[in-house]
């Protein structure tokens, strides 16, 4: 029986060298889509991040784990999340920060609650410490 690395070798080559989707590659290489995606995420995370233009962010992005974020969502909210965690923006509400960065307030709030609850907690503590009311 071939090793898992040999099983996906051709699929990985196609993923790295073409713009084909994971579904198209899995079909062309006769492997299961879910298995190929799992293998990519586990063993070739760098290729996933490169495809989404997120090279160098290996540590800061959770990709599609149970509560992971999609790469496009990470990019969409990245600057707004950083602003929410920055004291320079502490006087602004989440809604105001969302508008500044061109995202919806509901979307940013949900994204923060799901992926960065610690940012909301730090923000709340800082506001209390500084005597800033919402």
Main sheet: strands, sense, barrel: none
H and E string: HHHHHHHH
Distance between the termini: 62 Å
Give the percentage of residues in beta strands.
Answer: under 5%
Q: Find the count of extended strands (DSSP E, 2+ residues).
A: 0
- Helix/strand class: mainly alpha
Q: Tell me the helix content.
A: 55-70%
The geometry reads as: elongated
Rounded to an integer, what's the Rg over CA atoms?
Answer: 19 Å
Q: What value does the average pLDDT take?
A: 85
- Counting structural domains, the number is 2
- Low-pLDDT segments: none
How many DSSP helices?
Answer: 8
Report the oligomer: single chain
Produce the secondary structure layout.
Layout: H1 4-17, H2 22-29, H3 33-43, H4 45-51, H5 71-84, H6 94-100, H7 105-115, H8 117-130
Organism: Candidatus Paraprevotella stercoravium
Protein name: Glutamine synthetase
């Amino acid at each position: 029986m071939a090793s898992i690395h040999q099983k996906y070798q051709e699929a990985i080559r196609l993923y790295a060298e073409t713009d084909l989707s994971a579904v198209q590659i899995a079909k062309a290489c006769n492997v299961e889509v879910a298995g190929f995606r799992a293998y990519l995420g586990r063993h070739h995370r760098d290729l996933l991040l490169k495809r989404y233009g997120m090279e160098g962010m290996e540590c800061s992005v959770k990709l599609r784990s149970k509560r992971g974020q999609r790469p496009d969502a990470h990019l969409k909210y990245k600057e707004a999340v950083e602003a929410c965690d920055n004291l320079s923006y502490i006087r602004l509400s989440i809604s105001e920060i969302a508008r500044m960065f061109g995202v919806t307030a509901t979307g940013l709030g949900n994204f923060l609650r799901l992926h960065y609850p610690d940012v909301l907690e730090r923000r709340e503590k800082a506001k209390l410490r500084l005597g800033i009311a919402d």
